[in-house]
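[recover] target loaded
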Protein backbone atom coordinates (compact mmCIF):
# COMPACT_ATOMS: atom_id res chain seq x y z
CA UNK A 1 0.00 0.00 0.00
CA UNK A 2 2.67 2.68 0.84
CA UNK A 3 4.50 2.05 -2.43
CA UNK A 4 1.31 2.29 -4.49
CA UNK A 5 0.34 5.55 -2.83
CA UNK A 6 3.69 7.31 -2.52
CA UNK A 7 5.66 6.23 -5.59
CA UNK A 8 4.96 7.99 -8.92
CA UNK A 9 2.95 5.74 -11.27
CA UNK A 10 5.72 5.64 -13.87
CA UNK A 11 8.22 4.40 -11.32
CA UNK A 12 6.00 1.90 -9.52
CA UNK A 13 6.59 -1.12 -11.80
CA UNK A 14 10.36 -0.72 -11.55
CA UNK A 15 10.45 -0.43 -7.76
CA UNK A 16 8.11 -3.40 -7.40
CA UNK A 17 10.22 -5.50 -9.78
CA UNK A 18 13.43 -4.77 -7.90
CA UNK A 19 11.89 -5.21 -4.45
CA UNK A 20 10.35 -8.54 -5.47
CA UNK A 21 13.72 -9.86 -6.64
CA UNK A 22 15.41 -8.88 -3.38
CA UNK A 23 12.57 -10.31 -1.27
CA UNK A 24 12.66 -13.63 -3.11
CA UNK A 25 16.42 -13.87 -2.69
CA UNK A 26 16.20 -13.10 1.02
CA UNK A 27 13.53 -15.75 1.49
CA UNK A 28 15.73 -18.38 -0.18
CA UNK A 29 18.41 -17.70 2.43
CA UNK A 30 16.07 -17.79 5.41
CA UNK A 31 13.83 -20.81 4.75
CA UNK A 32 14.32 -24.53 5.22
CA UNK A 33 17.31 -26.70 6.24
CA UNK A 34 20.77 -25.25 5.59
CA UNK A 35 21.67 -27.91 3.01
CA UNK A 36 18.55 -27.27 0.96
CA UNK A 37 18.88 -23.51 1.25
CA UNK A 38 22.45 -23.61 -0.02
CA UNK A 39 21.59 -25.65 -3.09
CA UNK A 40 18.54 -23.53 -3.92
CA UNK A 41 20.44 -20.31 -3.48
CA UNK A 42 23.39 -21.37 -5.62
CA UNK A 43 21.03 -22.44 -8.38
CA UNK A 44 19.20 -19.13 -8.10
CA UNK A 45 22.42 -17.08 -8.10
CA UNK A 46 23.58 -18.94 -11.23
CA UNK A 47 20.18 -18.28 -12.84
CA UNK A 48 20.40 -14.57 -12.03
CA UNK A 49 23.94 -14.36 -13.36
CA UNK A 50 22.97 -16.04 -16.62
CA UNK A 51 19.97 -13.72 -16.99
CA UNK A 52 22.14 -10.66 -16.49
CA UNK A 53 24.73 -11.99 -18.97
CA UNK A 54 22.19 -12.73 -21.69
CA UNK A 55 19.58 -10.08 -20.92
CA UNK A 56 16.76 -12.62 -20.98
CA UNK A 57 15.00 -15.07 -18.67
CA UNK A 58 11.73 -16.95 -18.47
CA UNK A 59 11.56 -16.60 -14.67
CA UNK A 60 8.55 -14.55 -13.57
CA UNK A 61 10.67 -12.35 -11.29
CA UNK A 62 13.71 -11.97 -13.49
CA UNK A 63 11.82 -10.91 -16.62
CA UNK A 64 10.40 -7.72 -15.07
CA UNK A 65 13.71 -7.02 -13.31
CA UNK A 66 15.63 -7.26 -16.59
CA UNK A 67 13.14 -4.89 -18.22
CA UNK A 68 13.51 -2.38 -15.38
CA UNK A 69 17.30 -2.74 -15.41
CA UNK A 70 17.30 -1.90 -19.12
CA UNK A 71 14.90 1.03 -18.84
CA UNK A 72 16.46 2.46 -15.69
CA UNK A 73 20.06 1.64 -16.69
CA UNK A 74 20.60 -0.15 -13.38
CA UNK A 75 24.12 -1.03 -12.39
CA UNK A 76 24.97 -4.73 -12.08
CA UNK A 77 27.66 -4.05 -9.50
CA UNK A 78 25.37 -3.79 -6.48
CA UNK A 79 23.31 -6.83 -7.44
CA UNK A 80 26.45 -8.94 -7.81
CA UNK A 81 27.70 -7.64 -4.45
CA UNK A 82 24.35 -8.39 -2.83
CA UNK A 83 24.24 -11.97 -4.14
CA UNK A 84 27.82 -12.59 -3.04
CA UNK A 85 27.32 -11.12 0.43
CA UNK A 86 23.95 -12.74 1.06
CA UNK A 87 25.59 -16.18 1.19
CA UNK A 88 26.47 -15.45 4.83
CA UNK A 89 22.78 -15.83 5.69
CA UNK A 90 22.75 -19.43 4.46
CA UNK A 91 24.48 -20.60 7.64
CA UNK A 92 24.42 -17.47 9.78
CA UNK A 93 27.33 -17.50 12.28
CA UNK A 94 26.21 -14.58 14.45
CA UNK A 95 28.41 -11.67 15.52
CA UNK A 96 31.12 -11.85 18.13
CA UNK A 97 31.91 -8.14 18.03
CA UNK A 98 30.34 -4.93 16.74
CA UNK A 99 32.93 -4.97 13.96
CA UNK A 100 31.49 -8.28 12.71
CA UNK A 101 28.04 -6.71 12.55
CA UNK A 102 29.41 -3.71 10.68
CA UNK A 103 31.03 -5.99 8.09
CA UNK A 104 27.60 -7.58 7.63
CA UNK A 105 26.18 -4.13 6.89
CA UNK A 106 28.87 -3.54 4.25
CA UNK A 107 28.60 -6.92 2.55
CA UNK A 108 24.88 -7.71 2.80
CA UNK A 109 22.63 -4.86 3.87
CA UNK A 110 24.11 -1.89 2.02
CA UNK A 111 24.21 -3.72 -1.33
CA UNK A 112 20.57 -4.76 -0.82
CA UNK A 113 19.62 -1.16 -0.04
CA UNK A 114 21.44 0.10 -3.13
CA UNK A 115 19.84 -2.50 -5.42
CA UNK A 116 16.46 -1.18 -4.30
CA UNK A 117 17.15 2.56 -4.32
CA UNK A 118 18.85 2.52 -7.72
CA UNK A 119 15.41 1.86 -9.18
CA UNK A 120 14.66 5.52 -8.45
CA UNK A 121 15.27 7.52 -11.66
CA UNK A 122 18.10 9.99 -11.90
CA UNK A 123 19.96 8.56 -8.93
CA UNK A 124 23.70 9.15 -9.20
CA UNK A 125 25.06 7.93 -5.87
CA UNK A 126 28.26 9.69 -4.86
CA UNK A 127 30.26 9.03 -1.70
CA UNK A 128 28.00 11.24 0.42
CA UNK A 129 24.96 9.33 -0.80
CA UNK A 130 26.64 6.03 0.02
CA UNK A 131 27.48 7.31 3.49
CA UNK A 132 23.83 8.21 4.16
CA UNK A 133 22.70 4.91 2.63
CA UNK A 134 25.02 3.02 4.93
CA UNK A 135 23.67 4.81 7.98
CA UNK A 136 20.13 3.92 6.98
CA UNK A 137 21.20 0.34 6.29
CA UNK A 138 22.66 0.14 9.78
CA UNK A 139 19.60 1.68 11.42
CA UNK A 140 17.03 -0.42 9.61
CA UNK A 141 18.94 -3.68 10.06
CA UNK A 142 19.55 -3.15 13.75
CA UNK A 143 15.86 -2.40 14.13
CA UNK A 144 14.97 -5.58 12.24
CA UNK A 145 17.23 -7.62 14.52
CA UNK A 146 15.31 -6.25 17.51
CA UNK A 147 11.83 -6.84 16.09
CA UNK A 148 12.83 -10.32 14.85
CA UNK A 149 14.62 -11.36 18.04
CA UNK A 150 11.90 -13.74 19.26
CA UNK A 151 11.68 -15.64 15.99
CA UNK A 152 15.45 -15.58 15.44
CA UNK A 153 16.10 -17.11 18.86
CA UNK A 154 13.38 -19.68 18.29
CA UNK A 155 15.16 -20.66 15.06
CA UNK A 156 18.54 -20.87 16.79
CA UNK A 157 19.90 -17.52 15.59
CA UNK A 158 21.28 -14.74 17.79
CA UNK A 159 21.73 -11.56 15.77
CA UNK A 160 22.91 -9.20 18.51
CA UNK A 161 26.70 -9.00 18.93
CA UNK A 162 27.96 -11.11 21.84
CA UNK A 163 30.09 -8.18 22.95
CA UNK A 164 26.89 -6.20 23.57
CA UNK A 165 25.48 -9.01 25.70
CA UNK A 166 28.71 -9.08 27.70
CA UNK A 167 28.59 -5.32 28.22
CA UNK A 168 25.24 -5.61 29.99
CA UNK A 169 25.97 -8.96 31.70
CA UNK A 170 23.29 -10.69 29.63
CA UNK A 171 23.51 -14.31 28.48
CA UNK A 172 21.94 -15.93 25.47
CA UNK A 173 19.88 -18.04 27.87
CA UNK A 174 18.49 -14.84 29.41
CA UNK A 175 17.21 -13.80 25.99
CA UNK A 176 15.92 -17.24 25.06
CA UNK A 177 13.98 -17.42 28.32
CA UNK A 178 12.59 -13.91 27.85
CA UNK A 179 13.88 -12.72 31.22
CA UNK A 180 12.98 -9.18 32.22
CA UNK A 181 16.16 -8.11 33.99
CA UNK A 182 17.82 -4.72 34.22
CA UNK A 183 20.61 -5.94 31.95
CA UNK A 184 18.20 -7.22 29.30
CA UNK A 185 16.23 -3.97 29.36
CA UNK A 186 19.45 -1.95 29.09
CA UNK A 187 20.65 -4.05 26.15
CA UNK A 188 17.39 -3.62 24.25
CA UNK A 189 17.20 0.08 25.00
CA UNK A 190 20.81 0.77 23.99
CA UNK A 191 20.44 -1.23 20.78
CA UNK A 192 17.29 0.73 19.91
CA UNK A 193 19.07 4.02 20.55
CA UNK A 194 21.93 3.01 18.27
CA UNK A 195 19.46 2.11 15.55
CA UNK A 196 17.68 5.45 15.93
CA UNK A 197 20.95 7.38 15.84
CA UNK A 198 21.84 5.79 12.50
CA UNK A 199 18.37 6.46 11.08
CA UNK A 200 18.55 10.13 11.98
CA UNK A 201 22.10 10.48 10.65
CA UNK A 202 20.95 9.00 7.35
CA UNK A 203 18.01 11.38 6.88
CA UNK A 204 20.12 13.67 4.70
CA UNK A 205 19.68 11.13 1.92
CA UNK A 206 16.34 12.81 1.17
CA UNK A 207 18.20 15.71 -0.40
CA UNK A 208 19.93 13.37 -2.86
CA UNK A 209 16.74 11.66 -4.07
CA UNK A 210 14.49 12.88 -6.87
CA UNK A 211 11.69 15.01 -5.33
CA UNK A 212 8.91 12.65 -6.42
CA UNK A 213 10.53 9.77 -4.52
CA UNK A 214 11.15 11.56 -1.24
CA UNK A 215 7.71 10.66 0.20
CA UNK A 216 8.35 6.90 -0.02
CA UNK A 217 11.82 7.18 1.52
CA UNK A 218 10.40 9.46 4.22
CA UNK A 219 7.75 6.86 4.96
CA UNK A 220 10.31 4.06 5.23
CA UNK A 221 12.37 6.01 7.75
CA UNK A 222 9.28 7.00 9.72
CA UNK A 223 8.11 3.39 9.72
CA UNK A 224 11.35 2.21 11.30
CA UNK A 225 11.17 4.99 13.88
CA UNK A 226 7.70 3.70 14.76
CA UNK A 227 9.09 0.19 15.17
CA UNK A 228 11.74 1.53 17.53
CA UNK A 229 9.04 3.36 19.50
CA UNK A 230 7.27 0.01 19.91
CA UNK A 231 10.45 -1.78 20.94
CA UNK A 232 11.29 0.83 23.55
CA UNK A 233 7.75 0.64 24.91
CA UNK A 234 7.68 -3.16 25.08
CA UNK A 235 11.18 -3.65 26.44
CA UNK A 236 11.89 -7.26 27.37
CA UNK A 237 8.42 -8.29 26.18
CA UNK A 238 9.77 -8.42 22.59
CA UNK A 239 11.62 -11.57 23.65
CA UNK A 240 8.47 -13.46 24.53
CA UNK A 241 6.26 -13.22 21.44
CA UNK A 242 6.57 -12.38 17.73
CA UNK A 243 6.55 -8.74 16.78
CA UNK A 244 3.82 -7.66 14.39
CA UNK A 245 3.47 -4.22 12.82
CA UNK A 246 0.10 -2.62 13.47
CA UNK A 247 -1.26 -1.90 9.98
CA UNK A 248 -3.38 0.95 11.22
CA UNK A 249 -0.28 2.91 12.24
CA UNK A 250 0.95 3.01 8.64
CA UNK A 251 -2.00 5.12 7.48
CA UNK A 252 -1.03 8.38 9.26
CA UNK A 253 2.61 7.83 8.27
CA UNK A 254 1.59 7.53 4.63
CA UNK A 255 -0.55 10.64 4.85
CA UNK A 256 2.12 12.74 6.56
CA UNK A 257 4.85 11.52 4.18
CA UNK A 258 2.70 12.43 1.17
CA UNK A 259 1.73 15.85 2.50
CA UNK A 260 5.38 16.82 2.96
CA UNK A 261 5.96 16.10 -0.73
CA UNK A 262 9.32 17.21 -2.11
CA UNK A 263 10.54 18.54 1.22
CA UNK A 264 13.93 17.23 2.29
CA UNK A 265 12.71 17.02 5.89
CA UNK A 266 12.10 13.64 7.52
CA UNK A 267 9.23 12.77 9.81
CA UNK A 268 10.11 13.65 13.40
CA UNK A 269 11.21 10.75 15.60
CA UNK A 270 11.93 10.48 19.28
CA UNK A 271 15.00 12.33 20.54
CA UNK A 272 18.21 10.33 20.27
CA UNK A 273 19.67 9.59 23.69
CA UNK A 274 23.23 9.00 24.75
CA UNK A 275 25.09 5.84 25.64
CA UNK A 276 24.36 3.95 22.42
CA UNK A 277 25.82 0.52 21.92
CA UNK A 278 27.87 1.85 19.02
CA UNK A 279 28.73 5.51 19.31
CA UNK A 280 29.82 5.87 15.70
CA UNK A 281 29.79 4.06 12.40
CA UNK A 282 33.04 3.06 10.72
CA UNK A 283 33.85 4.44 7.26
CA UNK A 284 32.67 2.63 4.19
CA UNK A 285 34.57 -0.55 3.50
CA UNK A 286 37.13 -0.03 0.77
Amino acid sequence: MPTRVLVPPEGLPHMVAVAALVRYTDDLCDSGPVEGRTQRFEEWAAHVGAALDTGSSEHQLLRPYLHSADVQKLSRTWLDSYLAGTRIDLDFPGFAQESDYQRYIDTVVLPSFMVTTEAMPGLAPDRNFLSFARMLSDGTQRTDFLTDVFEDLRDGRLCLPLSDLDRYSVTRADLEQGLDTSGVRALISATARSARTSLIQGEQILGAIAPDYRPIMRFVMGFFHKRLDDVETRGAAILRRPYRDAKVTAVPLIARSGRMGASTQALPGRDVQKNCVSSSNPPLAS
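[recover] notes: Confidence is low (pLDDT under 50) at residues 271-286.
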